[in-house]
Amino acid sequence: MLRISTASTYSAMLANLTKAQARQNEAAGQVSSEKNADDLRGYAHQAEMLTAMRGVQAKVDGFLDQTAHLSARLDMQEVALTRVGDSVTGARTAVADALAADDGATLQQALAGFFSDAAAALNSKHDGRYLFAGGQSDVAPVANLNMSALANPATVASQFRNDDTIIANRLDETTTMDTGFLASDLGDQFFTTMKTIRDYTDLNGGFSSPLTDAQKTFLTTQLAEFDEAVEGMTYASARNGLMQTRLTSGRSDLEGRQKTLEGMVGDITDVNKAEAISRLQAAQLSLEAAAQVFQSLSGSSLLNVLRN
In angstroms, rounded to a whole number, what is the distance separating the alpha carbons of residues 137 and 296? Predict the structure, then answer.
């Protein structure tokens, strides 16, 4: 008996064809994007958890960006502190060499050069900001780079323009670390010693060759002051190194958290590619079958029977 297709049969097969095509498109999208869905609606009851994990991810990424910037700052601080330390050590060595050679003819010139180098290092910048200026990082913390600025009635305190704010940075949700230094703290001992020498020469004249007994006694006394300044700079450099180590450890922890979160999010969002390909093949086969049935129905319509 010849079966005649009806409108309801057409409608049912068209619905099946549409569903098969939708399943094929969904599977093809998952294969190409390697994601289970394009938006939160596709994750149903896991959407809330996914949103929370995305928020934590954003926070961790922000801390990682901050630690990268801070790492560059600490690296620049290390360079600046090394320069200051080298200048202090150089000045101390110049005094010791003058005493050893019993010749102070060029000592003042050498000391002036080391002072200028140290002052310039204390005015070092990172990312357009002065490193050792405290909170007012747009103002050079050392007012003058020339040792002549130490002449009476100038004071050591007047040479520094930084405020008392110590820069602090947050490494994660619970850890904050003071990472800044102040030019006045770093340079006070060195500048005080250099001013003492400047005041001596202003009062007694420049150092001679050979040195007088009074000059030898004075310079020998200053060696101990230079030693204290060297020790202070060594401590500052060591502290900066400890901060770098702590930052590296904190960054490693954040990167571990980041990878863990990526894995947790991936378990929800990332598609199993083998399964997605299988679903795509099944959807394609279903679509082809539905299309073939629909085509067969079109050949058994009542119109064709009446025409025959």
Answer: 81
Which tokens in the block code for residue 58? 């954003």
Neighbour count for residue 68 (Cβ, 10 Å): 12
**CA gap 16, 262 in Å, rounded:** 38
146: left (phi over 0), alpha (psi -120 to 50) or beta: beta
User: Which two three-digit tokens encode residue 28?
Assistant: 């093809």
Structure tokens at 172: 């994660």
Instruction: State whether CATH 1.20.1330.10 applies to domain 65-266.
Output: yes
Token pair of 77, please?
Answer: 């601080």
pTM above 0.85, yes or no: no
Which of 29-33, 74-78, 124-128, 197-201 bottoms out in mean pLDDT, i.e. has the lowest?
29-33
Look at the alpha carbons of 168, 170, 174, 175 in this order and tell me if their dihedral is positive or negative. negative
Q: What is the CA radius of gyration of the chain?
A: 39
Cα separation, 122 vs 287, whole angstroms: 74
- pLDDT of 4 reads 47
Token pair of 57 as six digits: 């991810």
Q: Is 34 exposed, middle or buried (0-12, 13-18, 19+ CB in 10 A)?
A: middle
